[in-house]
Amino acid sequence: MVDVEFRVVSDRREGLLLALGQAIIANGFTLLRQRMTTAQEGVVLTMLVRGPQASLLPLEECLGTHPLVRSFEASQPGAPTAAVEAPPEVPGPSSPTRTNTLPTVADSRRIEALLPQLARDYPNIFIPLLALERELDAEQREPALRYIGQRVGAWVYKRDFALGGHLTLADAIRHIGLPALRQLVQAEMHEDHLHVRNSPFPHRGQHGACCHFLRGMLGGLLGGPHGTEGLHVIERQCRNTGAEICSFEFSA
Protein backbone atom coordinates (compact mmCIF):
# COMPACT_ATOMS: atom_id res chain seq x y z
CA MET A 1 0.00 0.00 0.00
CA VAL A 2 1.13 3.55 -0.69
CA ASP A 3 0.13 6.95 0.73
CA VAL A 4 -0.06 9.79 -1.79
CA GLU A 5 -1.07 13.41 -1.44
CA PHE A 6 -2.83 15.05 -4.39
CA ARG A 7 -3.20 18.78 -4.89
CA VAL A 8 -5.85 19.71 -7.42
CA VAL A 9 -6.77 23.14 -8.78
CA SER A 10 -10.21 23.56 -10.27
CA ASP A 11 -12.48 26.33 -11.48
CA ARG A 12 -15.47 24.84 -9.65
CA ARG A 13 -16.11 23.96 -6.01
CA GLU A 14 -19.53 22.35 -6.36
CA GLY A 15 -19.28 18.59 -6.80
CA LEU A 16 -15.47 18.58 -7.00
CA LEU A 17 -14.86 16.37 -3.95
CA LEU A 18 -17.67 14.01 -4.90
CA ALA A 19 -16.45 13.55 -8.47
CA LEU A 20 -12.80 12.99 -7.53
CA GLY A 21 -13.79 10.85 -4.55
CA GLN A 22 -15.61 8.52 -6.93
CA ALA A 23 -12.47 8.20 -9.06
CA ILE A 24 -10.37 7.45 -5.97
CA ILE A 25 -12.76 4.72 -4.79
CA ALA A 26 -13.07 3.25 -8.28
CA ASN A 27 -9.29 2.78 -8.43
CA GLY A 28 -9.17 0.94 -5.09
CA PHE A 29 -7.93 3.83 -2.93
CA THR A 30 -9.29 5.21 0.34
CA LEU A 31 -9.58 8.93 1.04
CA LEU A 32 -7.86 9.54 4.39
CA ARG A 33 -8.41 13.28 4.66
CA GLN A 34 -9.13 16.26 2.48
CA ARG A 35 -9.04 20.05 2.63
CA MET A 36 -10.61 22.52 0.21
CA THR A 37 -9.63 26.19 0.06
CA THR A 38 -10.01 29.10 -2.32
CA ALA A 39 -6.82 30.71 -3.60
CA GLN A 40 -5.90 33.20 -6.31
CA GLU A 41 -5.32 30.34 -8.73
CA GLY A 42 -8.79 28.84 -8.11
CA VAL A 43 -10.35 26.21 -5.88
CA VAL A 44 -7.58 24.10 -4.29
CA LEU A 45 -8.42 20.60 -3.09
CA THR A 46 -5.76 18.64 -1.19
CA MET A 47 -6.39 14.94 -0.62
CA LEU A 48 -4.35 12.30 1.18
CA VAL A 49 -5.19 8.83 -0.16
CA ARG A 50 -3.99 5.29 0.45
CA GLY A 51 -4.15 2.35 -1.91
CA PRO A 52 -2.29 -0.25 -3.98
CA GLN A 53 0.94 0.84 -5.68
CA ALA A 54 -0.09 -0.97 -8.88
CA SER A 55 -3.16 1.28 -9.23
CA LEU A 56 -1.38 4.57 -8.57
CA LEU A 57 -0.51 5.44 -12.17
CA PRO A 58 -4.06 4.78 -13.46
CA LEU A 59 -5.44 6.91 -10.63
CA GLU A 60 -3.01 9.76 -11.36
CA GLU A 61 -3.94 9.64 -15.05
CA CYS A 62 -7.64 9.64 -14.16
CA LEU A 63 -7.31 12.67 -11.87
CA GLY A 64 -4.87 14.54 -14.10
CA THR A 65 -7.18 14.27 -17.12
CA HIS A 66 -10.43 14.79 -15.24
CA PRO A 67 -12.63 17.49 -16.83
CA LEU A 68 -12.96 19.35 -13.51
CA VAL A 69 -9.19 19.48 -12.93
CA ARG A 70 -7.14 22.40 -14.28
CA SER A 71 -3.84 21.40 -12.68
CA PHE A 72 -2.73 18.42 -10.63
CA GLU A 73 0.20 17.58 -8.37
CA ALA A 74 1.07 14.28 -6.71
CA SER A 75 3.62 13.76 -3.96
CA GLN A 76 4.71 10.89 -1.73
CA PRO A 77 6.62 11.03 1.58
CA GLY A 78 10.28 11.49 0.79
CA ALA A 79 9.66 12.04 -2.92
CA PRO A 80 9.72 15.27 -4.93
CA THR A 81 6.43 16.76 -6.04
CA ALA A 82 5.44 16.12 -9.62
CA ALA A 83 3.09 18.53 -11.34
CA VAL A 84 0.84 17.57 -14.19
CA GLU A 85 -1.16 20.14 -16.10
CA ALA A 86 -4.58 18.91 -17.12
CA PRO A 87 -5.04 19.03 -20.88
CA PRO A 88 -7.35 21.76 -22.20
CA GLU A 89 -10.92 20.73 -22.81
CA VAL A 90 -11.43 19.90 -26.46
CA PRO A 91 -14.79 20.82 -28.00
CA GLY A 92 -16.78 17.87 -29.23
CA PRO A 93 -18.43 14.74 -27.80
CA SER A 94 -17.38 13.89 -24.25
CA SER A 95 -16.25 10.42 -23.24
CA PRO A 96 -19.45 8.44 -22.52
CA THR A 97 -17.87 6.56 -19.61
CA ARG A 98 -16.57 9.67 -17.89
CA THR A 99 -19.74 11.67 -18.43
CA ASN A 100 -21.99 8.90 -17.15
CA THR A 101 -20.09 8.54 -13.87
CA LEU A 102 -20.24 12.24 -12.97
CA PRO A 103 -23.27 13.72 -11.25
CA THR A 104 -24.72 16.90 -12.64
CA VAL A 105 -23.96 20.15 -10.85
CA ALA A 106 -27.42 20.10 -9.27
CA ASP A 107 -26.94 16.52 -8.05
CA SER A 108 -23.51 17.32 -6.60
CA ARG A 109 -24.85 20.30 -4.70
CA ARG A 110 -27.70 18.25 -3.32
CA ILE A 111 -25.39 15.42 -2.22
CA GLU A 112 -23.02 17.75 -0.40
CA ALA A 113 -25.98 19.48 1.26
CA LEU A 114 -27.50 16.12 2.23
CA LEU A 115 -24.52 14.85 4.24
CA PRO A 116 -24.96 17.26 7.21
CA GLN A 117 -28.68 16.45 7.22
CA LEU A 118 -27.92 12.72 7.44
CA ALA A 119 -25.61 13.38 10.39
CA ARG A 120 -28.31 15.42 12.18
CA ASP A 121 -31.10 12.90 11.55
CA TYR A 122 -29.13 9.66 11.90
CA PRO A 123 -30.33 6.88 12.08
CA ASN A 124 -33.52 8.18 10.42
CA ILE A 125 -31.87 8.69 7.05
CA PHE A 126 -33.66 6.52 4.50
CA ILE A 127 -36.40 8.96 3.47
CA PRO A 128 -33.98 11.60 2.09
CA LEU A 129 -31.66 8.89 0.71
CA LEU A 130 -34.47 7.21 -1.21
CA ALA A 131 -35.67 10.57 -2.48
CA LEU A 132 -32.18 11.30 -3.82
CA GLU A 133 -31.86 7.81 -5.32
CA ARG A 134 -35.13 8.23 -7.20
CA GLU A 135 -34.00 11.49 -8.78
CA LEU A 136 -30.49 10.39 -9.78
CA ASP A 137 -29.84 9.16 -13.30
CA ALA A 138 -29.51 5.37 -13.42
CA GLU A 139 -25.77 5.44 -14.17
CA GLN A 140 -25.13 7.81 -11.26
CA ARG A 141 -26.93 5.87 -8.54
CA GLU A 142 -24.26 3.33 -7.65
CA PRO A 143 -21.21 5.66 -7.44
CA ALA A 144 -23.15 8.44 -5.72
CA LEU A 145 -24.81 6.20 -3.12
CA ARG A 146 -21.59 4.29 -2.43
CA TYR A 147 -19.79 7.60 -1.94
CA ILE A 148 -22.47 8.83 0.50
CA GLY A 149 -22.40 5.48 2.29
CA GLN A 150 -18.63 5.59 2.69
CA ARG A 151 -18.80 9.11 4.13
CA VAL A 152 -21.57 8.11 6.55
CA GLY A 153 -19.74 4.92 7.55
CA ALA A 154 -16.52 6.79 8.30
CA TRP A 155 -18.49 9.32 10.36
CA VAL A 156 -20.29 6.60 12.34
CA TYR A 157 -16.96 4.88 13.01
CA LYS A 158 -15.44 8.08 14.41
CA ARG A 159 -18.56 8.80 16.46
CA ASP A 160 -19.16 5.36 17.94
CA PHE A 161 -16.13 3.09 17.54
CA ALA A 162 -12.91 5.12 17.23
CA LEU A 163 -11.83 4.56 20.86
CA GLY A 164 -11.62 0.79 20.42
CA GLY A 165 -8.48 -1.14 19.55
CA HIS A 166 -7.58 -2.29 16.05
CA LEU A 167 -9.58 -5.44 15.22
CA THR A 168 -9.18 -8.24 12.75
CA LEU A 169 -11.63 -8.08 9.84
CA ALA A 170 -13.82 -10.87 11.30
CA ASP A 171 -13.99 -9.14 14.70
CA ALA A 172 -14.61 -5.75 13.09
CA ILE A 173 -17.55 -7.16 11.10
CA ARG A 174 -19.04 -8.59 14.31
CA HIS A 175 -18.30 -5.71 16.69
CA ILE A 176 -18.50 -2.68 14.36
CA GLY A 177 -20.27 -3.52 11.10
CA LEU A 178 -23.12 -5.52 12.64
CA PRO A 179 -24.02 -3.07 15.46
CA ALA A 180 -23.81 -0.11 13.08
CA LEU A 181 -26.10 -1.75 10.51
CA ARG A 182 -28.57 -2.69 13.23
CA GLN A 183 -29.15 1.01 13.88
CA LEU A 184 -30.66 1.16 10.37
CA VAL A 185 -31.90 -2.30 9.30
CA GLN A 186 -32.49 -5.86 10.50
CA ALA A 187 -29.01 -7.36 10.24
CA GLU A 188 -27.56 -10.72 11.25
CA MET A 189 -24.12 -12.29 10.99
CA HIS A 190 -23.71 -15.72 9.36
CA GLU A 191 -20.13 -16.95 9.54
CA ASP A 192 -18.22 -14.00 8.07
CA HIS A 193 -21.14 -12.57 6.04
CA LEU A 194 -23.72 -9.96 6.99
CA HIS A 195 -27.35 -10.60 6.06
CA VAL A 196 -29.92 -7.81 5.83
CA ARG A 197 -33.62 -8.69 5.63
CA ASN A 198 -35.26 -5.30 5.18
CA SER A 199 -33.01 -3.13 3.04
CA PRO A 200 -35.18 -0.31 1.64
CA PHE A 201 -33.38 -0.19 -1.72
CA PRO A 202 -34.68 -3.31 -3.58
CA HIS A 203 -37.78 -3.33 -5.79
CA ARG A 204 -37.53 0.30 -6.81
CA GLY A 205 -37.26 -0.20 -10.57
CA GLN A 206 -33.53 -0.96 -10.68
CA HIS A 207 -31.80 -4.01 -12.13
CA GLY A 208 -29.35 -6.25 -10.26
CA ALA A 209 -27.97 -5.82 -6.76
CA CYS A 210 -28.81 -2.31 -5.60
CA CYS A 211 -27.87 -1.75 -1.94
CA HIS A 212 -25.03 0.57 -2.92
CA PHE A 213 -25.37 2.82 0.13
CA LEU A 214 -25.03 -0.12 2.53
CA ARG A 215 -21.96 -1.39 0.64
CA GLY A 216 -20.38 2.04 0.87
CA MET A 217 -21.25 2.40 4.55
CA LEU A 218 -19.67 -0.97 5.41
CA GLY A 219 -16.56 0.07 3.50
CA GLY A 220 -16.37 3.34 5.44
CA LEU A 221 -16.86 1.51 8.74
CA LEU A 222 -14.44 -1.36 8.22
CA GLY A 223 -11.86 -0.19 5.67
CA GLY A 224 -9.24 2.54 5.44
CA PRO A 225 -6.57 3.47 7.98
CA HIS A 226 -8.68 2.47 11.00
CA GLY A 227 -9.67 -0.91 9.57
CA THR A 228 -8.64 -3.37 6.85
CA GLU A 229 -6.57 -1.95 4.01
CA GLY A 230 -7.78 -2.81 0.52
CA LEU A 231 -11.17 -3.95 1.78
CA HIS A 232 -13.74 -4.95 -0.84
CA VAL A 233 -17.42 -5.21 0.08
CA ILE A 234 -19.53 -7.31 -2.29
CA GLU A 235 -23.29 -7.68 -2.24
CA ARG A 236 -23.40 -11.37 -3.13
CA GLN A 237 -27.19 -11.71 -2.84
CA CYS A 238 -29.89 -9.07 -3.12
CA ARG A 239 -33.65 -9.22 -2.70
CA ASN A 240 -33.81 -7.13 -5.84
CA THR A 241 -32.67 -10.20 -7.80
CA GLY A 242 -35.09 -12.61 -6.09
CA ALA A 243 -33.03 -13.65 -3.05
CA GLU A 244 -34.65 -13.82 0.38
CA ILE A 245 -32.01 -11.58 1.97
CA CYS A 246 -29.29 -9.13 0.96
CA SER A 247 -25.91 -10.70 1.79
CA PHE A 248 -22.64 -8.79 2.05
CA GLU A 249 -19.23 -10.46 1.83
CA PHE A 250 -15.81 -9.02 2.59
CA SER A 251 -12.35 -9.59 1.14
CA ALA A 252 -9.00 -7.82 1.25
Mean pLDDT: 84
User: CATH topology of the largest domain, what is it called?
Assistant: Muramoyl-pentapeptide Carboxypeptidase, domain 2
What spatial order of strands do you see in the largest sheet? 2-3-1-4-5
Shape: globular
Q: How many strand segments?
A: 9
* Continuous helix count: 8
Termini gap: 12 Å
Largest sheet: 5 strands, antiparallel
Radius of gyration: 18 Å
Question: Any idea what the CATH superfamily of the largest domain is called?
Answer: Trafficking protein particle complex subunit 3
Q: Tell me the name of the CATH class of the largest domain.
A: Alpha Beta
> What helical percentage do the residues reach?
40-55%
The CATH architecture name of the largest domain reads: 2-Layer Sandwich
**What count of domains describes the coordinates?**
2
Class per helix and strand makeup: alpha+beta
Order of helices and strands: EHEEHEEHHHHHEEHEE
What do these coordinates show?
There is one protein chain. This protein has 252 residues and is α+β, with helices and mostly antiparallel strands. The chain is 40% helix and 23% strand. The chain is built from eight helices and nine strands. The protein has helices at residues 16-26, 56-64, 96-101, 105-121, 126-135, 138-160, 169-182, 212-222, and strands spanning 2-10, 30-39, 42-51, 71-75, 82-85, 187-190, 193-196, 232-237, 246-251. The strands form two sheets. Strands 2-3-1-4-5 form a five-stranded antiparallel sheet, with helices on one face. Strand 4 and strand 5 (82-85) form a beta hairpin. The longest helix is centred in the middle third of the chain and has 23 residues, at 138-160. It is globular, with a radius of gyration of 18 Å.
